[in-house]
Amino acid sequence: MAGALEGPLHRDSRPAGVAFAGLCVGAAWSVGALAARVPTAPAVAVLTGVTTWSVLGGTSLARIGAAMADALDDDDIEAARALVPSLCGRDPQALDADGIVRAALESLAENTSDATVAPLFWGGVAGVPGLLAYRTVNTLDAMVGYRNDRYRRFGWAAARLDDVANLIPARLTGLLVVLLGGDRGQAMAAWRRDAHRHPSPNAGVVEATFAGALGVTLGGRTEYPHGVEDRPLLGAGPAPTTGDLRAAVTVSRWVQTGAALMAAAVAAGLSRRSAR
Question: Which topology term describes how it sits in the membrane (predicted)?
Answer without folding.
Answer: Multi-pass membrane protein
